[in-house]
From TrEMBL:
GO biological process: secondary metabolic process
Keyword Glycosyltransferase: no
A single GO molecular function term of this UniProt record: hydrolase activity
GO cellular component: cytosol
Organism for this UniProt entry: Polytolypa hystricis (strain UAMH7299)
Gene3D superfamilies found in the cross-reference section: Metal-dependent hydrolases
Protein's recorded name: Amidohydrolase-related domain-containing protein
Alphabetical list of InterPro entries matching this protein: ACMSD (IPR032465), Amidohydro-rel (IPR006680), Metal_Hydrolase (IPR032466)
Keywords, ordered alphabetically: Decarboxylase, Lyase
Residue ranges occupied by any Amidohydrolase-related domain in the UniProt entry: 145-390
Lineage: Eukaryota, Fungi, Dikarya, Ascomycota, Pezizomycotina
A Pfam family this chain is assigned to: Amidohydro_2
Family per similarity comment: Belongs to the metallo-dependent hydrolases superfamily.
């Protein structure tokens, strides 16, 4: 592929650079958040001060005035032009956008199907609106693709399965994003089986992403959390939440019952690659799982096989050590995919054009595998293009 022109002056890479972890709140979802006064919500101060986004329950502290709660929400959260500008700055050729947390988890059962259809159609239309007329990127494919949202609070799992089937025929949808609460009871809930079945039969990739973190007590209580801002919940709460969720899926034999299920884990699997051996050891020493002696049927597949066959990891881990653990855990560079987490973690100094959160991940890839190496290219885009069929 020839080198592509870039509006920032620096050349676009001559290979696809695909961001598979990048969020948006479509306009319709912003309106939904503005209509609410409990988490998640957007607060518009009566003054000209910036609107505030309050999505984490730890941010909704009544002792803090509403105009200081959560974080300022600017157009990078919803304006596609901001996304495109961010992509150009970081030489990203294609983004697979997804609704940001907490997705549709908070909706009442009667609203869920409506909003899932609306958001997924909106995401598909947004991608369509950016599709180049004459192909310049990724062998004539589109600039934007999307992971759809699921109506998990709907009154029946048939509604969720129907939306999975429907979204899998939308042109730009390449998977579904989901949090760790599932239907409200976590991901080892047998009630989720129809959802796993629909994902498996349509070969829809599930992007599993944290939102709820850990209870405040795990960090020493609310005051301790507040003292350190978002560091404890985001650096530790998010990855541990993902690790616990996927381990519960594994222990409850989801991957034995649905052997073709494909899951992309946010933040390089939380701590799963690092802890897989410990999980394996604890299972081997757990009497509950002893064949003919225990009272719970333990997982049949080894955790390492699940990592190699059912799990993909993003490369949003910010260090060479973490990235190498992800690649070793996944069994190959072919199952690790570049992402940015845009629009979260913007530069604190608004004059900085390049985002530290992006360069840290890019540098980890370059230092682990060598700039321009085949492995780096695979992680930066080749894997996503192949796995998500971005040029189909
Ligand atoms: O900064 C944060 O709170 C977040 C978030 O909520 N979701 C996410 O994907 N990244 C960072």
């Amino acid at each position: 592929m020839a080198e592509l022109p870039s509006t920032t002056g620096s050349p676009m890479p001559s290979f696809p650079k695909v961001d598979i972890h990048t969020h948006v709140y479509p306009e319709s979802y912003m309106t939904l958040l503005r209509s609410r006064s409990t988490v998640p919500y957007i607060y518009d101060p009566p003054s000209n001060a910036p609107s505030r986004l309050i999505i984490l329950s730890s941010d909704d502290n009544p002792s803090i005035p509403k105009e200081n709660r959560g974080r300022p929400v600017d157009s990078s959260y919803y304006d596609v032009n901001e996304k495109l500008s961010f992509m150009r700055t970081h030489n990203i050729t294609t983004s697979v956008i997804s609704l940001a947390n907490p997705w549709l988890d908070f909706l009442s059962p009667d609203e869920a199907a409506f909003w899932a259809t609306k958001i997924n159609d909106d995401l598909n239309a947004l991608c369509e609106s950016q599709a180049p007329h004459s192909g310049t990127l990724l062998n004539e494919s589109s600039l934007l693709f999307a992971f759809g949202a699921l109506p998990l609070s709907a009154p029946s799992t048939d509604i969720i399965a129907n939306e999975i089937n429907r979204m899998s025929s939308l042109k730009y949808i390449r998977g579904a994003i989901m949090g760790t609460s599932g239907l409200g009871k976590g991901l080892d809930d047998p009630g989720l089986d129809p959802v796993w079945a629909a994902l498996e039969s349509t070969q829809t990739l599930l992007f599993l992403h944290p939102h709820y973190g850990l209870p405040n007590d795990a960090f020493g209580g609310k005051e301790t959390i507040e003292r350190y801002g978002h560091v404890l919940p985001l650096a530790l709460g998010f990855p541990l939440e993902t690790t616990i969720a996927v381990t519960r899926m594994y222990l409850s034999r989801v991957f034995d019952r649905f052997p073709r299920l494909q899951i992309l884990l946010a933040h390089s699997g939380g701590t799963l690659p690092f802890l897989a051996g410990r999980i394996e050891s604890c299972i081997a020493h757990e009497r509950k799982f002893v064949v003919n002696g225990g009272d719970v049927e333990g997982p049949g597949k080894s955790i390492w096989d699940v990592l190699k066959q059912n799990i993909l990891l993003d490369a949003v881990v910010y260090s060479e050590v973490g990235l190498k653990a992800a690649v070793h855990g996944a069994g190959s560079v072919d199952r690790v995919l570049f992402g940015t987490d845009h629009p979260f973690f913007p530069p604190l100094n608004s004059k900085e054009e390049t985002w530290l959160s992006v360069t840290m991940n890019q540098n980890a890839i370059n230092s682990a595998f060598g700039e321009d190496s085949e492995s780096a290219k695979a992680i930066l885009g080749g894997n996503a293009a192949r796995i998500l069929k971005l040029d189909a």
